[in-house]
Amino acid sequence: MEKPLKISYIEPVGESGGMYHYNIGLVNNIIDENVKILLYSTVKNRKNYQKDIIIYNCFKNVWNKKSKFLKGTLFLVILLGSVIHSRIKQSKIIHLHLFKIDLIDLLTLAVAKMIGLKIIATVHDIIPFKGNNKEKVERIYLKNLDSIIVHNQYSKKVLLTKTSNKSIHVVPHGNYIPFIKNANQDSSKTYKFLPEDFNILFFGLIKDSKGLDVLLSAIRYVIDDKPKVKLHVYGKIWKSNINKYSKIISDLGLQNNVETRFKYIEDKDLPYLFKNTNLVVLPYKSIFQSGVLLFSMSYKKVTLVSDLPPFLEIIDDGINGFVFKKNDSKDLADKLLLIINKKDELVCIGNNAYQTILEEYDWGDIGKMTLKVYKGLINVNI
Questions:
Q1: Distant-in-sequence, close-in-space partners of 53: CB < 8 Å, separation ≥ 6
Q2: Rounded distance, CA 12 to CA 57, Å?
Q3: With 349 labelled, which of 100, 125, 168, 324 sits at a CA distance of 20 to 30 A?
């Protein structure tokens, strides 16, 4: 019997952070009797994964280290160890994930190439939101990848301005439908949603690039006409100043219309938040792909997004969501008022949103697309 093609999927964050659903959705759907997945990650529950996936829970002790030096050193040792171990286990390909390209990534690439492995990288943020890629390092790294995966056509277009590597494949980010759970009513003790309010949700890691300031300014316009609007801002502040947003809320007199929880939101609370939300707003100033958008649509929620190209590849204004002009708080306010006045139509638009990601962002299809990239690297007939 022919030996299976072994693929090492190396993603350090896993179930300790934001790659939890992504990893499960993808590796569980790379299905082929002649392909074996070796997962190197942080795994808290083995039952989340198919039985035939070989799991190395090697990064589990990295993220609880308080010392940055110790954490960084341990991460590098385990990362390079995972690459070498992959070769020992006779993997042909390693699949990595990138949010920022630095010297560690270049070293990992060099070691993998030196021992005869082919390298695929899913590049999530073409331009990082934390610092900047060193141009020379980025150019060398991208050029020497055997294949690159991005999540949409816009990302591919931008990436082609940075590299001569033409082996770039567009494979969408999958939906969150498999991970939806029933609402936990205990969450109501912490999060207050009144049924008489029009409840708007701004959710996720709060970065300056996500445009919360634009949304707060828009709410000021809206409540003059619709005082029963309530904005719920839930998420951990990242590389920004919490006082910046508290001051905007105070200066605009929004204390009665804006509820903030600037902290990480537990997974168990998410079903309750989305169940009680009328509208999710993503007023982002820049983005390459948004898990929050796909998560919201998976809950059949109506979204209002800025007119960034990645959003426009998903949202058809007035059909499966709404769009406003980026950085324009007045246009955002006008769209919010329009949506509030169309409250009775939102169920239909939410259903359209769900249908969009059910059909176009299915993990089964994404697994097949990813498998095609793998096999194409070693000239296996598909």
A1: 27, 28, 37, 38, 39
A2: 9
A3: 125
**Cα→Cα distances 98→122, 150, 290, 299, Å:** 6, 10, 15, 27
Whether the Cβ atoms of residue 226 and residue 298 lie closer than 8 Å to each other: no
- Check whether 22 has a pLDDT greater than 70: yes
Query: In the 3-class helix/strand/coil scheme, how is the chain assigned residue by residue?
Result: CCCCEEEEEECCCHHHCCCHHHHHHHHCCCCCCCEEEEEECCCCCHHHCCCCCEEECCCCCCCCCCCHHHHHHHHHHHHHHHHHHHHHCCCCEEEEEECCCCHHHHHHHHHHHHCCCEEEEEECCCCCCCCCCCHHHHHHHHHHCCEEEECCHHHHHHHCCCCCCCCEEECCCCCCHHHCCCCCHHHHHCCCCCCCCEEEEEECCECHHHCHHHHHHHHHHHHHHCCCEEEEEECCECCCCHHHHHHHHHHCCCCCCEEEECCCCCHHHHHHHHHCCCEEEECCCCCCCCHHHHHHHHCCCCEEEECCHHHHCCCCECCCEEEECCCCHHHHHHHHHHHHHCHHHHHHHHHHHHHHHHHHCCHHHHHHHHHHHHHHHCCCCC
Task: Output b/e per residue, 272-299; b: 16+ Cβ within 10 A.
Answer: bbbebbbbbbbbbebbbbbbbbbbbbbb
The structural domains of the chain, ordered by start, are 5-174+362-377 (3.40.50.2000), 178-360 (3.40.50.2000)
Q: Give yes or no for a contact between 121 and 144, defined as CB atoms under 8 angstroms apart.
A: no
Tens-digit pLDDT profile for residues 195-249: 899 999 999 889 899 999 999 999 999 999 999 999 999 998 877 778 899 999 9
Structure-derived torsion over alpha carbons of residues 11, 16, 21, 26, reported in degrees to the nearest 10? 20
If one compares 205 and 346, the residue with the highest pLDDT of the two is 346
CA-nearest of 260, 261, 253, 259 to 221 is: 253
Cβ atoms within 10 Å of 353's Cβ, excluding its own: 27
Model-level pTM?
Answer: 0.91
